[in-house]
Design a protein that fits this description.
single chain, 662 residues, Rossmann fold, GMP Synthetase, Chain A, domain 3, seven-stranded mixed sheet, 32% helix, binds 5'-O-[(S)-butoxy(hydroxy)phosphoryl]adenosine
């Protein structure tokens, strides 16, 4: 192998550097779930009925009458009058089909403990916990909040809710107590499933204390179920209205709960995500359309087969985990791997060690992780057999071609296609990406819209841009996995996603994801990033307004502006520009309180990279903060036009401060 010599390695690197398109490896194509390029035309000619192919991956209690009802657009309905149960589709039918002893979930704790749940084990515990939830008082359509780390009880609780028709709302465990309370209040959620703690970099972390603090700010009574993850390592007590998970499950040992027949359009879950305003958006997903869509994309894009061991290294607290750790993979009856901890514990080869030990077939992660692996160096992959891998995927933010190629070469050994999948919390599942068994891959470009999906790049007026020009990404047609509305807020749903490019008078509805993009002459789309006031830190979406309101909540702060600046590993990092109140001095102490304030309001992921004190913020004559200039400063780029500013001098002062690290 030429790679074994230094010269060979350099040659290979140079060759990869120049190559800007890659054909899918023949061995992959041969076995791919989808390998016929005719699928694009087939879906186009037969739209929207093409989506029956997705619905056919599920077992329905009652057949649907109509694939798509667009009579009340943009409140689209999919698979109308059909009924089904998501828990039945993810568990029971695999047990009935003779695969009860196949592993459904394999879990590894950070300290190395392992657990395997076969489909039968999963069936038993989901039934028992569903019975437990009913005992606690949960009824159909009650929203159950989950605030849990990566433990098997999280997907179990989600599936138990799905079984009894109670929508779940999972709040990422890294979010703060305040963030939990905001979401529980917004959803009027009276039930919480949480956990005593979990391990991070080898240390036990108290999670229950955070959950308890959050509950103090919830406006109504809440029944809580607590999973005991840490055992004797960390004692916890249960107050009134709190139940122990294990006891509940034991009390209902051996019980079964009939899966509740849900209408296709009934809510499966809510997921809160950040938007332009400070108030998070409750994205509503439904049972029939969502489950069909994530199953279909899991099959067509992730190429999942029941006999695979599949690993998505995201957190279930985000949509990626909902769609592609839990619902899609389990609906297809595969083995899904879950890992509790960080990729650098006990060392930076943890993930490769796991890929080797579990013989992982498919691996799906985020560009921020890939950039970290790159920085750590390929040596950490040495000595781990990664030959079980067949397909690699990435999601969450744009991936730079260098990181793509590193992933392709060092992790995939040039034998695995890489799918760069563009989608969002709102889209439920993947929208723009190559089909790994069909299309060529172009590093940095996500690819064409999936079959049946119609996406384009347009200018401000809504006209398609020329090839290579930057514009706005739009989606011209509904799709089964789409959000149906924002919880309790139909108006904001229309305002946020459908106002910009639709033409309601002509009943033409265009979905605007608020991303900038470019399109090549061959229809490949390169997503450039958000065009709203949302920043993307390590693939996590954060609203600048949310962070700003946390900062102005700190005593001594008069005004704050938050922008995203480039970060080598995180993609973007939070930059905060702060004006102090009269009588307060800019000090390290205040800076510390600001950082703490952000962590309390949102969580450590939103922690500012830099807090810059300034006597003024750059403002237009009408008083609007010029964020673009603040971004230029954060990125150490040449400053854009300052002539329209009321106070142009301030810009140079701020830039000088940032450069001096003050
Ligand atoms: C935003 C959605 C989809 C699950 C994880 C994030 C960005 C996502 C890509 C990609 C470029 C991407 C977009 C999008 N994004 N995937 N492959 N290439 N950008 O879900 O928190 O709802 O964030 O993430 O900006 O709008 P989310």
């Amino acid at each position: 192998m030429p790679e074994d010599t230094e010269e060979g390695a350099v040659e290979l690197e140079a060759r990869l550097e120049e190559q800007d398109a890659f054909e899918p490896p023949a061995a992959f194509v041969e076995q791919a779930n989808v390998s016929d390029e005719g699928i694009y035309e087939e879906f186009e000619e037969n739209w929207p009925e093409c989506w029956e192919q997705a619905a056919d991956l599920l077992d329905w209690d009652d057949d649907y009458d109509q694939v798509l009802d667009d009579s009340d657009a943009p409140f689209y309905e999919w698979f109308t009058d059909g009924s089904l149960n998501a828990s039945y589709n993810c568990i029971d039918r695999h047990v009935e089909n003779g695969r009860k002893n196949q592993a459904a979930i394999r879990w590894e704790g950070e300290l190395g403990e392992t657990r395997t749940y076969t489909y039968l084990d999963l069936y038993n515990e989901v039934n028992e916990f569903a019975a437990g939830l009913r005992e606690v008082g949960v009824e159909e359509d009650d929203v159950v909040t989950m605030y849990m780390p990566m433990v098997p009880e999280l997907p179990i609780a989600m599936l138990a809710c799905a079984r009894i028709g109670a929508p779940h709302s999972v709040v990422f465990a890294g979010f703060s107590a305040d963030a939990l309370a905001t979401r529980m209040n917004a959803a009027e959620s009276e039930y919480l499933v949480t956990c005593d703690g979990y391990y991070r970099r080898g240390d036990p972390l108290n999670h229950k204390e955070k959950a308890d603090r959050g509950l103090e700010s919830v406006d109504h009574d809440v029944e809580t179920v607590v999973v005991d993850r840490l055992g004797d390592v960390q004692e916890h007590s249960l107050g009134e209205h709190a139940h122990d998970y294990d006891e509940l499950v034991e009390d209902h040992a051996g019980e079964t709960v009939a899966p509740v027949e849900r209408d296709a359009e009934d809510m499966l879950f809510l997921m809160y995500t950040s938007g332009t305003t400070g108030q998070p958006k409750g994205v509503k997903h439904t049972t029939g359309g969502y489950l069909s869509y994530v199953s279909w994309t899991s099959q067509a894009v992730l190429d999942i087969k029941p006999e695979d061991t599949y690993w998505c290294a995201a957190d279930i607290g985000w949509i990626t985990g909902h769609s592609y750790i839990v619902y899609g993979p389990l609906a297809l009856g595969t083995t899904t791997l879950m890992y509790e901890g960080t990729p650098d514990y006990p060392d930076r080869d943890r993930l490769w060690d796991m890929v080797d030990r579990y013989a992982v077939d498919i691996f799906y992660t985020a560009p921020t992780a890939i950039r970290a692996f790159m920085k750590w160096g390929a040596d950490y992959l040495e000595g781990h057999d990664l030959s079980s891998l067949r397909l690699l995927g990435t999601v969450g933010e744009p991936i730079n071609p260098r990181a793509w190629k590193w992933y392709y070469r060092h992790v995939g050994g040039e034998e695995c296609p890489v799918v760069d999948t563009w989608w969002q919390t709102e889209t439920g599942g993947m929208m723009v990406t190559t089909l790994p068994g069909v299309g060529k891959m172009k590093p940095g470009s996500a690819g064409p819209p999936l079959p049946g999906v119609s996406a384009d790049v347009v200018d401000v007026a809504g006209d398609p841009v020329e090839a290579g020009q930057a514009g706005y990404l739009v989606v011209n047609r509904p799709w089964p996995g789409m959000l149906r509305t924002l919880y309790n807020n139909d108006e904001r749903f229309i305002e946020e996603y459908w106002r910009e490019y639709s033409n309601p008078d002509r009943d033409e509805w265009v979905y605007f994801p608020e991303d900038g993009a470019k399109i090549d002459s061959d229809g490949y789309i390169t997503v450039l990033g958000r065009v709203d006031d949302v920043i993307n830190v390590s693939g996590h979406r954060l609203g600048t307004m949310e962070i700003e309101s946390a900062i102005v909540g700190v005593e001594g702060v008069a005004e704050a502006a938050v922008v995203g600046g480039h970060h080598d590993v995180k993609g973007e990092a939070v930059y905060a520009y702060v004006i102090t109140e009269d009588g307060y001095d800019p000090s390290d102490d205040l800076r510390h309180q600001i950082v703490e304030g952000v962590e309390d309001a949102i969580g450590p992921i939103a922690r500012p990279e830099a807090v810059v004190f300034t006597p003024e913020l750059p403002k237009t004559r009408s008083g609007k903060i010029m964020r673009r200039l603040l971004e230029d400063i954060a990125n150490d780029e040449e400053l854009g036009d300052t002539s329209t500013l009321r106070n142009p001098d301030v810009v140079d002062d701020i830039a000088a401060k940032v450069r001096s690290g003050d």
